Amino acid sequence: MTLYGENSPPADDRPTVQVTAVTWPDDGAEPVTTAAPGEPDGGPRRPRRMRVLLAAGITGGVLAAVAGAGAWAYAGDVPRGTSVLGTELGGRSRADADRELRAELDRRAATLATPLKVTVDGRIAEINPADVGLTVDVPATVAAAAEADAHPVSRLVGSRTVEPVVTVDVGRLDDALRKVLGNQAQGMTMPAITYQGTTPKAVQPKPGLALNPERSAEVVRAGWLAGAPVTVPLVETHPATTPEELDRMVSELAKPAVAAPVTLRTNKGQVTIPPAAIAKSLRFGADKTGKLTPSVDVKRLRAALGDKLAAIEVPPKDATMTISGGRPTAKEGRSGQQLDTAALSRDLLAVLPKADGREVTGELKPTPPELTGEKLAGLGIKERVSTFTTRFTGGMASSRSQNIATIARKVDGTIVLPGKTFSLNGHTGERGYTQGYRDAPVILDGKLVPGVGGGTSQFTTTLFNATYYAGLEDVEHKPHSYWFDRYPAVIESTIFWPNLDFKFRNNTEYGVLIDTSYTSSTITVSIWSTKIYDSVKTEYGPRRNITAPKQIHLAPGPSCIETNGINGFTQDAFRVIKKGGVVVKREKFTWRYDAEPRYVCGPKTS
Questions:
Q1: pLDDT at position 284, please?
Q2: Which of 213, 239, 265 lies at the terminal end of a domain, its last residue?
Q3: Among 182, 237, 239, 314, which one has the highest count of C-beta atoms within 10 angstroms of its own C-beta?
Q4: Which residue, 239, 270, 303, sits at the end of a domain?
Q5: Which residues form the YoaR-like putative peptidoglycan binding domain (predicted)?
Q6: Is residue 461 part of a domain?
Q7: DSSP string covering 249-262, please?
Q8: Strand partners, 486
């Protein structure tokens, strides 16, 4: 309805609506009325007070209605008409909305737990939502619903649907999808620079197709609640270092680095670093994005320089522990003087691209031992936890016995810190003539032949058993191809440089001391630490699949060693560990022994 006043335009032929203005006279005056346009003046007039009251009543009614509508619209934290997963949350407080949404999720629990079908590069599998952390974040969803639309009119009328906030463990999902993908992904060819002698060789970067964890999570979150199969895309990825950058790195660093030696000067003298040592220590490492970064590996540089650094450095010496009078006794180590590794790596890398001025100044810094007497004393090495002995023949005049004694001396007194892994190959290094080892029979290609270091497998078996009965974690070992009655079946180990190793992990909170000793006919290894278990024992299953040895004739000569032959068999051994009177661990070890042939040096007799 439109109201026109005194300044309204001239009348037209549209219908005229009559409006009567009401006023109230003051102090009992006669009511006066104003005629509508076109009416004759005169007639009864309403009092002015009545007009005021009537207007006030209308206004109050409108305001009351508006106020009521506003109170209704703004009731609760979540705007009216807001729903999540088909559940009306509008008009509720956040706490009520949270409860209602959780109730709806409980009603859908079976559906939400249904394995999700995923396709990755054509390979189809099912993923359990719980295994990858797929869930609805209820507080976040309620917060999103509460902020869905704060406009006053929108709160009064209309409806809106808010999508649930779905979370997923991106790392676990990526692991699961990689298992589905298997080896089908076309990984990036990472850029690389290596040296053949002193000649740099470059590997050009190439893009690949692979899973993108964030993109995978995005499509899985979107498809989970819909209950429909999900196709996870593979994304083309490019190494961060481009072919052009790689070529520039070769021409500006890799080639000039080995063009001439570098002089290392210190206050104790100088050392010449030849190109061959530079090539062995200059590394070009690519991170997971394919970014290639050069660095100087000072540990490799030390190895490449050999004894040259001994003229200017004094290495630190760790604290040691010996067994004296049946008790472990610690002996303090000493500090050394060594090159500042970080500064040397930085300064050497800076001069390698240069043709002139190829000199660096090395700073010798006091270097404390890694293991101090105080630290050693706090490792809890206080009692013998286990001991194991094996026997050998030939006395100490035998080359085999000498090899056993040599490796035993090398390992004696070794401290293995909590959580660390001991590698026998890593500890002794190569076992050759220069390290004091001699020729003795070894098993090679299924037969006994002379070889440097023969007999070290007996020490390995003895050490393995000592750690085994101490309850320490077996990391790597391999029994012999044939069984020898001087060793316990299954619970034994061979070793061969560099391919076969023996490793164990100190899975306790205490330090471990390896103590070795030998006589002319025995080798003994004891483990000292803090005793954790009541007992560690072995239970054997019966031997099965027994096979008899064959007789094989070999050409006679110094390389031929005759054997009597040994049966082959399969057997199980169980390590049973007790603590507090109950079995806390039972581990199964199984091995299949071949039948050792009966080797005869000479032709068959008729």
A1: 96
A2: 239
A3: 239
A4: 239
A5: 242-360
A6: yes
A7: HIIIIIHHHTSS-E
A8: none
Query: What pLDDT is recorded for position 55?
Result: 54
Amino acid at 72: W
- For residue 82, being part of any structural domain is answered with no
Q: Are residues 457 and 559 in the same domain?
A: yes
Give the Cα separation of 503 and 489 in Å (integer).
Answer: 19
Asked if 127 contacts 118 with a C-beta cutoff of 8 angstroms, the reply is yes
Which pLDDT score, from 0 to 100, does residue 77 have?
Answer: 86
My answer on whether omega of the bond before 79 falls inside 30° of 0, hence cis, is: no
Does 161 lie in the same domain as 276?
no
586: Cα separation from own chain's centroid: 28
| pLDDT the model gives residue 557 | 81
Q: Is 98 a domain residue?
A: yes
CATH number at residue 195: 3.10.20
- Residue type for 120, please? V
Same domain, 396 and 435: yes
**Helix or strand or coil: residue 118?**
strand
Which structural domain range is residue 292 located in? Answer: 243-377
Tokens of 32: 């006066």
Distance CA 50, CA 65 (A): 23
Residue stretches of the chain with pLDDT short of 50: 1-40, 42-44, 62-73, 153
Q: Are residues 188 and 124 in the same domain?
A: yes
If one counts the domains in the chain, the total is 4
| Residues 398 and 546 reside in one and the same domain | yes
**Strands 116-120 and 123-127, sheet pairing:** antiparallel
Which residues partner with 265 through β-bridges?
A: 270, 361
> Could you read off the pLDDT of 506-534 as tens digits, one per residue?
999 999 999 999 999 999 999 999 999 99
Q: Which pair of tokens denotes residue 90?
A: 């509008």
58 and 178 in a single domain? The answer is no
- Residue 40 has, within 13 A of its CA and on its CB side, a CA count of 3
Residues 387 and 528 in one domain: yes
* Token reading at 1: 């309805």
The strand pairing partners of 387, in sequence order, are 526
- For residues 466 and 459, give the distance between their C-alpha atoms in angstroms, rounded to a whole number: 11
Q: In terms of C-beta density within 10 A (0-12 exposed, 13-18 middle, 19 or more buried), how is residue 550 classed?
A: exposed
The answer as to whether 584 is a domain residue is yes
For residue 351, give Cα distances in angstroms to 301, 385, 409. 15, 54, 43
Contact status, residue 176 vs residue 133, Cβ threshold 8 Å: no
Question: Quick one: 62 and 115 in the same domain?
Answer: no
| Distance, CA of 529 to CA of 422 (rounded, Å) | 15
Quote the pLDDT of residue 445.
Answer: 63
The predicted pLDDT at position 444 comes to 67
Q: How far apart are CA 589 and CA 465, in angstroms?
A: 13
What pLDDT sits at residue 56?
53
Task: Give the DSSP per-residue string, 438-499.
Answer: -EEEEEETTEEEEEETTTHHHHHHHHHHHHHHTTPEEEE----SS--TTS-SSS----BTTT
Compute the half-sphere exposure of residue 477: CA atoms within 13 Å on the CB side of its CA: 27
Helix (H) or strand (E) holding 513: strand 512-518
